[in-house]
Amino acid sequence: NPTPLDGTQSISVWVFSTEGAGSNYIRTMVGRSATGNGSNTLSLHPNNQKFAFYEADGNAVVVSQAAITASTWYHLVVTFDGTATVLYQNGLSHDTGTLDLADPFNNNSNLTIGGGYANRYFAGRIGEILLFSKTLSATEVRSIYEQSRWRYNI
């Protein structure tokens, strides 16, 4: 279990889902999941095929604007500044929300990649994962996307 990040942080990840709509479970890409319901995780919701960051009570704090296309690479970043949570997709801000936790990644659970509670594994591929102990700016998020998208043929 890695040392938790402090109250400001960001997660960047490239994902490629092979699963279409219709699954019954939230699929965790990266986060800390202890009690189910996608707790403190960046996940793919199966019914609407949108990316979301879920807090411990199972509610989505931020959700991407459009359903994804299966078998396509996406770059996701979720940032947290101590109050506001922002979800970026392919370098652009998609949603902003307020998280009730002082530290969304410190719930005393192991950091998971590609899986979570009750073996609800992400169906697909996960590329580069970057963890930051700061809140990335929109410019920094866009720069990470632009500098790495060639690896995913975008």
What does this structure look like?
The structure is a single chain. This protein is mostly beta strands and 154 residues long. The chain has 1 helix and 10 strands; from the N terminus they run ββββββββββα. The strands form 2 sheets. It has a 5-stranded antiparallel beta sheet with strand order 8-7-6-1-10. Strands 5-4-3-2-9 form a 5-stranded antiparallel beta sheet, with no helix packed on it. Strand 4 (50-54) and strand 5 (60-63) form a beta hairpin. The model is unreliable at 1-5 (pLDDT under 50).
Summarize the topology.
Layout: E1 9-17, E2 27-32, E3 41-45, E4 50-54, E5 60-63, E6 73-80, E7 84-89, E8 92-98, E9 111-113, E10 124-132, H1 138-148
Antiparallel strand pairs: 1-6, 1-10, 2-3, 2-9, 3-4, 4-5, 6-7, 7-8
Count of separate DSSP helical elements: 1
Radius of gyration in whole Å, from Cα?
14 Å
* Terminal-residue CA separation: 34 Å
Return the structural class: mainly beta
Number of strands: 10
Strand residue content = 35-45%
Weakly predicted, low-confidence segments: 1-5
Q: What global shape is seen? A: globular
Order of strands across the widest beta sheet? 8-7-6-1-10
What helical percentage do the residues reach?
under 10%
Order of helices and strands: EEEEEEEEEEH
Mean pLDDT: 80
Main beta sheet: 5 strands, antiparallel
